[in-house]
């Protein structure tokens, strides 16, 4: 294998680099300067990396003028898209209004972002770039220059020492002395250059070290600039949000289902909830003779479509007139989805207490007192509904919906406890108390609410033409005092029929609820609950109760197979 001679250019260059490194290691720098040198190199690296990452965080293009930079911001593009979209949708669309306001806000945010990035570029990026790419590299260049000067000095000194030795052993003393003097001048010149460079390097290094606190301030300035930007952006948003919220609140086309009664009435400027009025007007037209109204379930798709139509406040409801069960289902769904029942959480205990009064006339009096305590809007809407239910019950021979039937299927949607209890408590409350509250109110609707009701409150719907043989069941009552004519005196010859019908419906309801029970103790609990409630309902036939309770006690632990 051929080897390179020591005189080859590669070896000469390598020898120079080795000597330069050795000169750098023996450059007579003090220990603290060596420490500063290492720190300076690390600062250069981290400053370079920080600058690089900060540039990637900016959304604008560095170096371009402000106008072009603003147009290139993503927020500006978003703002323009929102404004254009709002213009296309128009003022009649809430989304269009919101897009225009938000578009203007986004444009203001883009302006704040532009100012922020310009400030960051000026106060942070430029100084960091200057430090990492100019100042520290210049000091490091001086460090390399000092290493070269040290090498030159060492070389000149070595030649001078060799010439001095030659004078002693040589014959031509005068010539050798002259040569040694010239070399001595070279050594002195090289030393002067080396010392000047060393002094300049030391000064620059100490200056860098003394300014490290100033360099650290760049990062403080970054956080201050970001805080100022976010404060200004927050100010922009806070100035816009009230306007947006006001437009949102003023928009009347909001879903009625699931919205509180007070909020819905206030937003729509109505006295009676739209779903309540719309459904009742449709039922008055086509549903009064429908058998099993409120009891027979409607088709899911039809019910969903009707609810969506009512949420949109549309008056185009002609297609639903032919399906009264869907209309009744929508009415039940509206009442059930109210955040607070129509008969109020606050009065729940009072309702239950009033229904527990044993004497019928006093029980009615107690129910009236609680009813009179309802909030104004709740009472108005309950009166509207009860008047309709009373009208519906007048056709019970055809539609099979007696006050008792109506109370069983609709009562749980009008009153429920705020906190759900056990299965036994819920069953007892639903089957006994709620029915004993709703049924007499429907039976004696004109006693509880003597005033006439105009069902077409808003004028949006056409009133049905009453049949020629229509009988007015309303009666005149004194509304100024609590001492009214007892509704018990109004019961006619049909009292026995109503009582038997009430017994049949009520016992059937309790039986259907008992099939869900899974313990004998729960059956007994419900039996005793019924025993206490029968006298209150006027169902106190002892023979009937004994036979029924005996049957209850003989039920198996899982009565579901009995169906």
Give the integer mean of the pLDDT values. Answer: 78
Query: What structural category arises from helix and sheet content?
Result: mainly alpha
Please provide the count of β strands: 0
Order of H and E elements: HHHHHHHHHHHHHHHHHHHHH
Number of helices: 21
Protein name: Rho GTPase-activating protein 17
Subcellular location: Cell junction, Tight junction; Cytoplasm; Membrane
Main location: other
Pfam families: BAR, RhoGAP
Concise account of the structure shown:
The chain is mainly alpha-helical and about 575 residues long. Helix content is about 70%, strand content about 0%.
Describe the protein's architecture and organization.
There is one protein chain. The protein is rod-shaped. With 563 residues, the protein is mainly α. Helices cover 70% and strands 0% of the residues. It has helices at residues 9-25, 31-57, 66-72, 74-89, 94-169, 173-210, 212-250, 261-268, 274-286, 300-311, 324-337, 348-355, 360-372, 376-393, 396-399, 403-410, 423-443, 445-448, 495-514, 520-537, 542-553. Helix 5 runs antiparallel to helix 6, helix 17 runs parallel beside helix 20 (520-537) and helix 20 (520-537) runs antiparallel to helix 21 (542-553). The N and C termini lie far apart (105 Å). Residues 173-200 form a coiled coil. Residues 259-449 form the Rho-GAP domain.
């Amino acid at each position: 294998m051929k080897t390179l001679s020591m005189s080859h250019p590669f070896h000469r260059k390598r020898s120079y680099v080795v000597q330069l490194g050795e000169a750098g290691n023996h450059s007579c720098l003090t220990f603290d300067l060596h420490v500063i040198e290492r720190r300076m190199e690390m600062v250069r690296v981290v400053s370079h990396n920080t600058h690089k990452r900060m540039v990637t965080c900016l959304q604008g293009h560095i170096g371009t003028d402000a106008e072009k930079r603003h147009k290139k911001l993503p927020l500006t593009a978003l703002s323009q898209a929102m404004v254009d979209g709002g213009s296309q949708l128009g003022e009649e669309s809430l989304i269009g209004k919101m897009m225009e306001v938000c578009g203007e806000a986004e444009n203001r945010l883009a302006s704040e972002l532009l100012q922020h990035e310009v400030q960051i570029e000026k106060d942070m990026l430029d100084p960091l770039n200057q430090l990492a790419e100019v100042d520290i590299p210049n000091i490091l260049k001086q460090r390399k220059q000092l290493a070269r000067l040290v090498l030159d000095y060492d070389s000149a000194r070595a030649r001078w020492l060799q010439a001095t030795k030659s004078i002693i052993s040589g014959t031509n003393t005068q010539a050798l002395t002259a040569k040694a003097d010239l070399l001595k001048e070279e050594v002195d010149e090289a030393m002067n250059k080396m010392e000047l460079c060393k002094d300049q390097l030391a000064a620059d290094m100490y200056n860098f070290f003394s300014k490290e606190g100033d360099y650290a301030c760049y990062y403080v300035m970054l956080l201050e600039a970001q805080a100022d930007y976010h404060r200004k952006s927050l100010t922009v948003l806070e100035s816009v949000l009230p306007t947006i919220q006001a437009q949102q609140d003023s928009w009347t086309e909001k879903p009625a289902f699931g919205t509180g009664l007070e909020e819905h009435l206030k937003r729509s400027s109505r006295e009676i909830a739209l779903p309540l009025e719309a459904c009742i007007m449709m039922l008055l037209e086509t549903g009064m003779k429908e058998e099993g109204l409120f009891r027979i379930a409607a088709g899911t798709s039809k019910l969903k479509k009707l609810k969506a139509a009512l949420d949109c406040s549309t008056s185009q409801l002609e297609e639903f007139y032919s399906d009264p069960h869907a209309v009744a289902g929508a009415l039940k769904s509206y009442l059930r989805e109210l955040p607070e029942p129509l008969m109020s959480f606050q009065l729940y205990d009072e309702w239950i207490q009033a229904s527990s009064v044993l004497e019928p006339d006093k029980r009615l009096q107690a129910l009236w007192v609680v009813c009179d305590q309802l909030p104004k809007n709740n009472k108005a809407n309950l009166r509207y509904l009860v008047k309709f239910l009373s009208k519906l019950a007048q056709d019970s021979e055809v539609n099979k919906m007696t006050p008792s039937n109506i109370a069983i299927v609709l009562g749980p949607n009008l009153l429920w406890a705020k906190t759900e209890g056990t299965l036994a408590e819920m069953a007892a409350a639903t089957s006994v108390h709620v029915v004993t509250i709703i049924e007499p109110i429907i039976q004696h609707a004109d006693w509880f609410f003597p005033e006439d009701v105009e069902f077409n409150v808003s004028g949006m719907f056409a009133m049905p033409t009453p049949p020629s043989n229509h009988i007015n069941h309303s009666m005149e009552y004194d509304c100024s005092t609590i001492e009214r004519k007892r509704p018990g005196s109004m019961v006619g010859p049909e009292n026995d029929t109503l009582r038997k019908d009430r017994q049949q419906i009520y016992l059937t309801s309790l039986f259907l609820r008992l099939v869900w029970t899974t313990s004998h103790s729960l059956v007994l609990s419900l039996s005793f609950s019924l025993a206490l409630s029968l006298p209150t309902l006027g169902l106190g036939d002892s023979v009937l109760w004994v036979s029924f309770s005996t049957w209850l006690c003989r039920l198996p632990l899982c009565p579901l197979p009995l169906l």
